[in-house]
Write a structure and sequence with these properties.
The chain is α+β, with helices and mostly antiparallel strands and about 575 residues long. Among the domains are: about 55 residues, no CATH class; about 180 residues, no CATH class; about 45 residues; about 90 residues, 2-Layer Sandwich (GMP Synthetase, Chain A, domain 3), CATH 3.30.300. The chain is built from 16 helices and 15 strands. Strands 11-10-9-8-12 form a five-stranded antiparallel β-sheet. Helix 5 crosses helix 12, helix 9 runs antiparallel to helix 11 and helix 15 crosses helix 16. The relative contact order is 0.05.
Amino acid sequence: MGYRGIPSVFIPFLSCHFHAKGIIITAFNNGGFVTTMKMNTCLIAFLVAISSFLFLKDNPVCGQMENWAPPASDISAATKELNTMDAVTDVVQAMGELEKEIKGKDVELHEAKTSEEKSEISKELSSLNERLDSLRVNFEEIATGLDLATFYAKPQKRFDWKEEIQTLVGPIIEDLKNMTARPRLIGNLRTQVAYYEKQLLLVKNAIENIHTIAARTKDENLKNQLTDLERDWNSKGRQISSQLTVAKYQLANKLSESKSFFESGKNIAQVFFKSRGRNFILSVCAFLFVFFSLRYIHRHIYRGSFIHKTVAKSFYIRLAEVLFYILTFVGSTSALLIVLYICSDWVLLSVAFIFILGLIWTAKQALPRFYEQATLLLNLGTVKENERVIYHGLPWRVASLQLYTKLVNPELKGGMFRIPIQDLKGIRSRPYHPDEPWFPCKENDWVILADETFGKVAIQTPEMVQLVLEGGGHKTYSTIAFLNQTPLNLSRNFSVKVPFRIDDRNRTISPAEIPLKLKEMVKAGLVNEGYAADIINLNVEFKEADDSFLCYLIFADFSGRVAKDYHKLPRIIQKIAHVITKSKC
């Protein structure tokens, strides 16, 4: 065990090398498996800073608490002591007057003759006793400097299962309330001061009214009644003045503890990270550490394991992959719960259990989806690895079937997609033939589209295809729109068809000799134009005859090397045929 109940983790390592860019740790486990980890120096500094921030002073895990000195007060110690003496003196005087008044009421109660008088005097006595008790509490609080309600508060012993959720959430809400306790208390004290000042003003007005009436009357009996009433209101004024003094004292006391925004924020952070906040951060860090550690181990095993390289597509290997994903989630969640258990934070531990149960309860509705994804990971679903799928209108090869599936199209620049496995829902794959094309063309191919656009493919990606037109202009299509134009690829050989007419009245050879003669002469003309190596086939056929002309069709097949001359070649053939007919037909 580590310091104060924190378990220590010992990793036997072979070597540890420090260098300018970081730390290299080479470790081995019980089976002799060697692992080399590189830790960036910035990452280490970040972890150290986080650790220092988590374990603030006053944290019991970090050792003994340091003596914390409060910030300097705006009011000097002598002034504060003087205010305390004034408040205590006023309260004691008010208590003495109340005690005298209570004794007088006791005498009146014994001398009362009717039950109505006794009932009224008893009510007054009860009110006076309540005020006296309140003054005694105020006196004790000022003298001791304690909040007696908090001091005498006892923990609740009664357990009510109906309030169980409130009990779990209550401490968290209580911590949040403690963070804002001082501003709320100051606001409450200011409200009390304003209330008592208003009450004193009303008492003053009442006494002045009594004086006015007493000055105008000559009836001795009425004057005596007014004198008694004035004495009563003076007593009320003194009581209210005493309560106002106490409220002002408490308000001044709280205001004297005013802190800067930075100090207030620091104190709030200390309160938060002292208990549940710290436990929450540590548990989340444990969850992330275990999760990414297992993912790191999985990635390196997948890359370096001889088994994965030889039988990576085996059903049992894929089953082990699925089980490892489950282990990653279970292990990470267990680390979170263990940290909360070690910290003895039963509130957060209970909330975590409730949250996990909620996830499990919600997951039952998603079981069919999870089952479908599991079958895909096991290569037993509708999409299988190394098969062909159509995704977003384009053909793709399923290169890797994992939680994030890799789709590849070798004919597209940037033709690699990583998509979550749930996006494969409703898609079906099929085996493909090695001769199947993955796109109608390649870069630098010449194409003709349905809208009669003729150009060379400059770039083709999963999002767009850009053509360079004759003359140097650029025309861009979205990839799906390009495919909808049913492109004709000329760079894989093409043919041209040229109609030609001969005047029947001026011919010098028979119609049966014309196709053969025309074919020989057109071929010779194309050779002279420099197309000898690109002529694949040449043929001349009779089409029809009208009143004075014989119509023929010249068919010529060329290699894709001269695709850029697709529009030029028909004109060349027309020119050659016209020259031939003028001279030899």
